[in-house]
Amino acid sequence: MVCELSGRGATDQAVRLLREHRPGLETLLLALEAESSPYAHVVAAVLATLPPLTERERARIAPPAGGAGLESYGMPGAWH
Questions:
Q1: Domain residue extents for the chain
Q2: Is this prediction's pTM over 0.85?
């Protein structure tokens, strides 16, 4: 939805939202890469549009834990 917001011209708001949620997006990317998901490239492309990580943002990135919590949704380690 944030990409749609940006596509409709609200780029400042979209970038602000992406930056606010950057640590979570970086964690998502790590989890997708760990599972060799084809969607990792999509998240990486979105993150590539943002400025480099700050030290504060980097400190908030959590390493993914086995499937990034999908087990509670009946999807143990499944990203494909």
A1: 2-56
A2: no
